[in-house]
Amino acid sequence: MAKSVNAPTGTQAIERALSVLGVLADDGELSAGELAQRTGLTAGTASRIAKALVAEGMLLRDPETECYHLGPRAVVLGRSAERVLGIDKAMQPLQGLAESSHESVNLAARDGAESVVLARVQSTLPLRFVQHVGARFPLYSTASGKAMLAFGDATESYLAELPTRLPPVGPGTLATRAQLERQLEQIRERGYSIDIEENVEGVRCVGAPVVDGDGIARAAVVVQAPSVRMHKDRIDELGPAVATTAREVSRVIPDASVLRSQG
């Protein structure tokens, strides 16, 4: 039988399926129409891909809401990836930092121009910033991103592509590329980065790079806290502790390059 000229190639079909999985990883639960809107696919294509993924156990469909969300096979794949990448081993030092600081702790990696949360230990305090694994933010507005830029190997090309005036993300976002460059120098000197409501209003962060054997940052450890608890003295206190935890993570993930997708 002749193949339809409109039929997707194998690569295209895979890319479409991955786009559906990606938006559901970010958004949690979406209808077929919302999937189409978020992925740029037609409604019919999005629906067919979602049904195929349900058949494979990668997605589940809620019979009441008719919305799709990740299924049990996606969980199995995710757990397997954690073991292969060493993220499961990194959880112990991350949990130790969360317990000593009483704040939320992230392990993030660079994906192009963004910082992506790979693992998270949530604070048990009532007042906390809730975030999910898979959340992504610009490198220049996050403690994790700036830690990776300060000790990264693709920083010059990244900075060259930034506009002179940086698009604001949060109320404290650095205004210019020059300010970012000066801050990266400060991070190299002290060994940790800070985010003073640069990404999210009311949230301050302290980050440190997870480096490989060549001293190149492929990931970062970050402590997140409400601004009311993250005053300057506490930032100065947490900085060395975050840097110590980042070094511990680098020892259990010796080839941290596997954590970075691109960039």
From TrEMBL:
Record-linked PANTHER family: HELIX-TURN-HELIX TRANSCRIPTIONAL REGULATOR, ICLR FAMILY, HTH-TYPE TRANSCRIPTIONAL REPRESSOR ALLR
Organism: Flexivirga endophytica
Residue span(s) of domain IclR-ED: 73-255
Keyword annotations of the record: DNA-binding, Transcription, Transcription regulation
Pfam family for this entry, one: HTH_IclR
GO biological process: negative regulation of DNA-templated transcription
Domain HTH iclR-type: 11-72
SUPFAM superfamilies reported in the protein's UniProt record: GAF domain-like (SSF55781), Winged helix' DNA-binding domain (SSF46785)
MF-aspect GO terms: DNA binding; DNA-binding transcription factor activity
Protein name: IclR family transcriptional regulator
UniProt cross-references to InterPro entries, sorted A to Z: GAF-like_dom_sf, HTH_MetabolicPath_Reg, Tscrpt_reg_IclR_C, Tscrpt_reg_IclR_N, WH-like_DNA-bd_sf, WH_DNA-bd_sf
